[in-house]
Structures are given as C-alpha cells and as structure tokens.
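User: Here's a chain of 443 residues. Predict its fold as tokens.
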Amino acid sequence: MSASVKIQRLESGAANFQQTLLASLSIPLAEDVAIDLKVAEIILAIQTHGDQALLKYTSQFDRLQVQTARALEILPSELEKAYLQLPADQSQALNSAAKRIRSYHDQQRLHAGCQTWDYTEADGTRLGQKVTPLDRVGIYVPGGKAAYPSSVLMNAIPAKVAGVAEVIMVVPTPAGVRNNLVLAAACLAGVDRVFTIGGAQAIAALAYGTATIPAVDKIVGPGNAYVAAAKRRVFGQVGIDMIAGPSEILIICDGTSNPDWVAMDLFSQAEHDELAQSILVCPDVNFINQVDASMQKLLPEMPRQEVIRASLAKRALFIQVDDMQQACEIANTIAPEHLEICAQNARQWAELIRHAGAIFMGNYTSESLGDYCAGPNHVLPTARTARFSSPLGVYDFIKRSSMIEVSEAGAQTLGQIASAIAHGEGLQAHARAAEMRLKKPGA
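Assistant: Prediction complete.
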C-alpha cells in the first residue's frame, strides 16, 4: 500500500498566516536563463532564414523530416477525414462541446462590449466606438506528451465568433504522429490552416512569417517553457493572450459536501503536473479531516498518482477559517484560476468573490465540466493574475477604434476647451488647429 501524502495545513487565526499563505502561493522557480538564450537563438534563426530554419528545428526537436515547408501543412480535406473517422462517442462529445462553447461565446459577443456603438450630442457631434476583428490569429496547440482537442475548441471558436478572417493552428507532431481528435476539433472549430510545427520556432514563424507560414496579428494557446519564453519575446510584434503558469484550484466548502467529490476535484488539477496547486478552504475542521481521508483512500486508484502525490506534497493546502465570509476573503487574496464553491447557497457566496478566473457554483459543478464542455472558456489567468485579467474570450480577438465626428457647432465649444489645455501644455500647434475652426466674432 502506498504511503499517505501529508498536506500542509494553515489556520487563518495564526499570527503569521498571511505571510505563510503568500509564500505558499509563490512558484519556487528562477527564470531559466538557458531556455531564454536558446529561444532568442531560435527566433533570430527563423527571422533570418525562414523556412530553412523551420525545417531544421522541426527535424531536430520533433524528429519530423520533410523536404519542403509546404509538407508541414495539413490540408482541410485531411482535417475532415480525421473528423469522419472518429468513433461515434468521440464525434458526438466533440460536437456537443463545440456547440456549447460556440453558444456561450455568441452570448459573450453580444453582452461583453464587443459591439460597435455611437451616440449623437445635442449640437450634432457624433461619438462612438467601432469594433473590428483581428485579420489573422495563430493558435498554439501542445502535441508532445498529450493531445488537447479541448484546447483547439477553446482557442479557435471564440476567434471565429469574433469574426477573425483566418485562424492558423500550429501543433507539433513528434515523429510524424498525428492525433485524429485534435485534427477533428480543428475541422469542427473552423480552423483555416494547420501546420505540424511546435516549440519556440512555431511561435517565431507565426510572429514574423516565413515563405510558407503566414504572419499573424495575435498568438494564443498554452505551451511549455520554450513556448512561453518565445511568446514573451515576440510580444509587441504581435499580441499574445497570456503567459500561463501551473494549474490551480481552490475549493470553498461549508462542510455539507461529499468529501470524495471534493477530493477528486482537488486531484483534477494536481494531476496536471507537480507544480499544480490544490487548495481547500473550510471553516469545519472535521470536514477537512474527511476530505484528507478521502484523498488518502482514492489516491492509489489514480493512474497519475505519482504526479498527484508530488503536487499535493509540494503545493497543496488545507486552510481552516472562522466562517464562510472569511473563506471568500482569502479566496480573493489567492485569486485562483479555478474556484469551486461547494456549499449551500453557493451563489450567495459567489457574490463576495472579486478575483477568480472561473467560478464553479454548487456541488454538481465540477471544474472538469468547465475544462471540456460547459461553454465558458477554459483558458484562464493563473498565478494570482485573476486580480487584473480575464478568461480568454471574444474580446481578445477584436480591437476598438474610437469614432469622432465633430459638428460645426460642436467645434465652437470643444475648440475653446482644447485651446486652453493645449496652451497650458505648451503645444501651440495643437491650440491653433482647434482655434482655426472657431468662428470669428460677427462672422
């Protein structure tokens, strides 16, 4: 029988609680200078040598040898073939997930400030906002250790709902092995072109373009440390979604939930990797003990138990609090990627939450449903960045232009205001440009 895993416990009433909590949230990783230097070398090579460098790195890192960069593209007919070859259960599940994700983002487009609007003032001046989609977006889909069709749907569908004209997908295929479920997801999501490239070289190709790979306006999607470093370096040349850290879940419980369910939900993030973080916050110490017992009982059944065990031992937390209100305050401090509220009147407690990537309310709302098929996006801010950033959405694939049409009457009022401020800033040409449109007295 496997040894039990010891999970760190904190009490909100302890004198050093706040400092200990913040220290437990930090990721003990110094930036890897070697990775950054290698990524800089790869990006420069792609900028300088284009397809030639892309072929070299694809052969070196993915063991995929082709004669021309054109051979790296998967044609739309091949995507459709992959979709048609899916087993019935996978095809139905993928279709259902895509439909729900598209429906949610359709609603988001209507209600999240993604529309053009204007209004007219009394003097005839018109002011507003014009919303236009990005022309071309690149999505990065990991393809090394595992296949992520859900990542394809979550990144490509909101781009298409936003009206992006062309979505370019890159996915590494080590040794030429392609995943049918990933290609089928690309077909369903409306991806326009797919290239079998990965790593920092794929990010560089999307950012700067080569003879074969078109340059894009924004790059989204998760990846390893090399992909993250490359996204940092090309930001400014193109937009990026975010630099995602290890996965996180925080579960607030009032002590009325099923401890086995809570234990498995904590496992659902811990199984991602050793640096993932699972946190339980609860005012009932007896319930915390029950969840602990459930975790020890269920852990030996998990195929990825060694990863889960390492994650729990390094970064998991049990936090005992005074009451549910304090639990919500601590959740706001942590600003987790995923927040589950497993409690009676969950929506009442959700009203107190200000910082979380996604909020899952009620005992039947497992985080895994959000990962795959509930509808809202699963690309979420990590590492406390939910304090100032949001899930990936339609709004990430549009841009806003201010619209200003000043009437003759409006220019008389606004011109005087602008003139006074411009003179105060010492910008006389600005002032004169406004003044020249003012009517002269008696004219």
